[in-house]
Design goal:
With 142 residues, the chain is of the alpha+beta class. It contains 3 helices and 3 strands. A 3-stranded antiparallel β-sheet has the order 1-2-3, with no helix packed on it. Helix 2 runs antiparallel to helix 3. The longest helix has 27 residues. It starts with 29 loop residues before the first strand and ends in an 8-residue tail after the last helix.
Length: 142
């Protein structure tokens, strides 16, 4: 199912989402960077793979067995908009957790995770505000 990275080296698997010995969804998800580290020293494309659609899945859920999450690579002023931000991904997770907390899946663990995601988002926003104040937001300058 997995393919070598663009430079033909074997993928570096990310497994922090898994709990050993637990047969949950996370055991079925394979995650790895799908590119060489780029701007800033990080990968910008992450491939998430899962087993092909289940026989009882709805037709629209039997789509591709993978997705690539592409993060912004380089400042917009130099590279244009070419991916998502950490903030955008956190906003999606926050929305899902808030929806669970507003429904039948309300759980203390969800609330703790939600609080930490909101805290992470605030730290990233604070970083952006500081960069704007220093006049370096949207550039490669540190």
């Amino acid at each position: 199912m997995t393919e070598p990275t663009q430079d033909n080296s074997p993928p570096r698997y990310i497994t922090e989402h898994q709990i050993e010995g637990v047969g949950d969804l996370n055991q079925h998800l394979t995650i790895y960077p799908d590119d060489k580290p780029g701007h800033g020293g990080a990968s910008h494309d992450y491939k998430v793979e899962w087993p092909a659609g289940a026989p009882d899945a709805a037709p629209d859920m039997c789509g591709p067995d993978s997705i690539v999450i592409r993060f912004q690579n380089g400042p917009i002023s130099e590279a244009g908009v070419n991916g998502i931000s950490h903030e955008a991904l956190l906003a999606i997770i926050i929305d899902r957790l808030e929806s669970f907390q507003a429904g039948e899946y309300i759980r203390l663990a969800n609330q703790h995770a939600l609080n930490h995601c909101k805290c992470a988002l605030e730290h990233l926003h604070a970083r952006t505000r500081q960069r704007i104040k220093r006049g370096v937001e949207g550039t490669s300058k540190i």
